[in-house]
Amino acid sequence: MPSHDETSPVGSGAGPVRRPPPARSGGAGRARTTAARAGGSGSGGNRPPGSGGGGRPPGSGGRGGGAGGRGGNGGRKGKPARTKKQRRRRRLKILAGVVAGMFVLLAVFVGVVYATTEVPDPNSVQNAQTTVVYYSDGTTEMGRLGDENRTNVTLDQVSEPARNAILAAENRDFYSDPGISLTGIVRAAWNNVSGGSTQGGSTITQQYVKNAFLTSEQTFSRKFQELFLAIKLDNEYSKDEIFENYLNTIYFGRGAYGIEAAANTFFGVPAANLTAEQGAVLAVLIRNPSGNDPEVNPEGATSRWERVLDAMQEEDWLTADQRAAAVYPPVLPRAGSNLGIPAGPEGLIVRQALDELRAKGYTDQQIQAGGLRITTTIDKPAQDAALAAVNDVMTDPVQPENLREALVSIDPRTGAVRAYYGGPNGNEFDYAQALRQPGSSMKPYVLATALQQGIGVESRRDGSSPQTFSDRDAPVRNSGGASCGNCTLVEAMTRSLNTTYYGLALEVGPDNVRTTALAAAGMPEAWDDGAKTLANADGGTGASIGIGEYEMRPIDQAHGFATLAAGGVERTPYFVSRVTDSTGAVLLEYGGDAGEQVIPADVASDTTYALEGVADYSRRPLDDDRPVASKTGTQGLNAEDNSDAWMVGYTPSLSTAVWMGTEVRDPIRNASGAIVYGSGLPGAIWQQYMDAVLAGTPEEPLPEEPLIDADRNGPPATQSTPPTSEAPATTSAPPVTSEAPAPAPTSEVPVTSTPPATTPPTTTPPVTPPAGTTLPGPVLPGGGGAGGGGGGGGPGGGAAGGQPAAAGGG
Known about the structure:
Radius of gyration: 41 Å
Number of helices: 22
Largest sheet: 5 strands, mixed
Structural class: alpha+beta
Strand order of the largest sheet: 2-1-5-13-14
């Protein structure tokens, strides 16, 4: 019998427990093995080997032998195995611990953020920060908005009915809520996560925080900051103080900041005298000052006004009798406030920039009172050059007062508008947006359509004059008596032969030409008034599209030619490149869209090739014979006069359109009484501007040869008849004037024709100004008489009353 059991302790048990080496059956161990501790049924702790207890007998090879083995009633390490229920409970405990820990961390985070959030003193906050508009350098100011028509009042200086109307419209529970709307926050979060509109169900407190202290950025971080500021503001200030500051902060439209200014602007009374009906009108304006203005949207404003009064009755702020007797109050007409828009030509640029921001979702509150810093794409030197060109040409000598001009210049590589002139007054009609007939400046789209059908620029077509065509009875004539029985399309473009391009438009299909022009110029299928684009009043498009009967805007022509300059890649023009808040935080950064290949590259190249001789032919070459593609356009008014004149052209880095006409379709004549043509006053403006802007820049090459082979379907060769004069056959040539070089023969003069005998005379719709603008004085008419505009007429054409219609010329 050994002196001690191999599992019995030897010496002091104070040291660390260590399992004995597995190969040793004797020897001193400092503690019992795990198996022994979990051993069988004996009452003693020291059992002899082989007794069936905890240890294995010497030489035993099995793992599941005795009751004390692993296969006995002990689990892993001798403990009973956990049941599924126990394992599940353990997991739940762990999960609960993790969640509890997260809540603790969140509570600590919220506490720290809340404690460190500082609420600015409402008295130190400028209630409506001035929005500043800059040129493209981001430092030269173009204009300042939102710094007028503001008077702060105390809450007791606002009538109770008006206060109740605003509470009914915006936040009925304002005096009992904690400053935030939990349901609104949940709804907003769900919309944001699910891809809905980024929004928030804002209380009056939240609206005040956003308008007075924060930016307009629609992000989670901004909303998170809004949440904490609203809660803390609600805790640190009384409800009356918050409501008072809110009423002095909100923008109501028409340049009115705060309820006192709004009461005077819309009703001519102080806020203290506002009735419930008047207060409800103002309450409706808060959400959408422009769209809910009763002068702009009477039906929508009235419908929302009624809902506000219904809500007031539900809250017992109006009795049933008062509600039944309520009548929509008379509202003062607009007083012509310019809202800080500059009075000069740059004012029209500011308007375009603000319209662009509205289209991107910015509200009038954000624009007029948000302290934005708006950087436009307008290059200050280019804009100065545009103004100088217009002023120089129109004042030396002084030209007739009835003439109007527009200039739009676009970077084809991005779509950025670099210079923009729509008139001298920023608060009057913008002629860069006027719908006018383009005359022969439409011919490049006809050629691009033909090229896509395999008709190359060296193809020959009949350019003799006059000619009759299958879609009309009256003949089409070339200007100045020019005739070319077998001209290439390049020569016909340079000489602006109407018969060639009327016939070519008919050959390739007028609707196809329309499709090409719409794609290149990014025009819609219909204008805002519902009239079909590039079509007559009946919605039809005839072959006279090839000589410019149907209206386009100057910005559309600069856009369309920019597409050709960019190798057929169309990019939407834009005015705003960057928006920040007053602290410099970037809210918007935009460098233009990637563009879409709407015209094949080889087609755009060959169209450019065909336009390279026009500037020289029209005596409007650029300095140092810089390569440029261009096209003149003249729209005839009658047998003797023109109504519109154009010069449009481009290099790879700049596309510029210049238009000249009048408010109404009056004859356009220069200071000497001579007829104005595209290469005349408009050409002089275009030439001076392009030379100034491109001076010192590298010369950019243009295509030197066509890529698409000529077809073999041209007419037989005949002797071309040289032009005989600059004027129609029925008139004498205009005298050469001193304000510009004399135009080249035949390139500018429209000729006359009679309308189709089978088509009654019609007129095209009047010029439609862009949304949100009004025409000064008489309405600008659109196209000329039927079939008249631009070139000899077509379906639906002819001058009113069946008088001869003018055809377009170069």
